[in-house]
UniProtKB/TrEMBL annotation:
This is Peptidase A1 domain-containing protein. Belongs to the peptidase A1 family. Keywords: Aspartyl protease, Glycoprotein, Hydrolase, Protease, Secreted. One of its GO terms (biological process) is proteolysis. GO terms for molecular function: aspartic-type endopeptidase activity. Residues 1-331 form the Peptidase A1 domain. Signal peptide: none annotated. GO terms for cellular component: extracellular region. The keyword Protease applies. It is found in: Secreted.
Amino acid sequence: MKIYIGTPPIEKFAVADTGSDLIWVQSSPCENCFPQDTPYYDPNKSSTFISLSCDSKPCSLLPPRQHRCEKSNKCEYLYVYGDNSYTIGELGTDSINFGSNDVTFPKSIFGCGHNNVVTFNRTSKVTGLVGLGAGPLSLVSQLGDSIGHKFSYCLIPSYSNSTSKLKFGDEAIINGNGVVSTPLIIKSSHPTYYYLNLEGITVGEKTVQTSQIDGNIIIDSGTTFTYLEPNFYNDLIASVKEVIGVEEVKDPPTPFSFCFIYGDQTKAPDFVFHFTGADVILKLENVFAVFENNLSCLWIEPSNGLSIFGNKAQVDFLVEYDVEGKKVSFAETDCSKN
């Protein structure tokens, strides 16, 4: 997504991530940064940047053990992600807006990242990350009432030349035929995450049920794969083998766990994720990575912790989060056009 930071405003591209809260951009002086094709954000060149102190309220909103105070009394953060990516830097505020005609949000809280190691897929345009989670430091929470606690996105396929869309407020609302909605659950034990309840998955005519209820999977735009509880994953793989009639390939290519040789992709069965109140029918590209020699691999893995509905499964869907109304809605679409 594109954001503008500072005075004068500087254009930055950042990865939008619903599985985290902190907004941050690579900033000078940069001790350890990934390559980007524009200059680093320089707080000294923005007349509206304010450094936050250790005793400021925003500093106290960082997760425990993820901030520290040195002699300078600046709020230093260490923010770690589930894949062990991290950013280290200082917390501050500055003006942020999303385009020349949009409203500017002064004193937006974000991180100046001086030491950043990330594993997520990115282009050289990317300069940081925008947390869209449910916690207090996320962009969604900071914008709050001004966007009606609503946002939506539409993720494009990797081969598209278009860009993924992110909308806020009334513009984010999706309606019409084909829209399905499921309850959004936020847990006090993990306040960042948006939990959904997955009741089962159907492959062709065969349905595998989950055993858990009350929010058993998080929806995350920043994670590529979908991760399922290991026993449930094993049941699903057994169903895939039975319905499609394929044998598992030994030594699948990294990072996949389950691959097989499949001749006629057009005969692949539907995969339906049954969320409470919402059946989300996935297309072939949402479920399988297809390689040469008819090798197909599943974009679904066994989890070693959280179950996650990842971004490959969400490609070419409009996905709306209504945080106040406590629901997530899905509508199939062509995100390269809409």
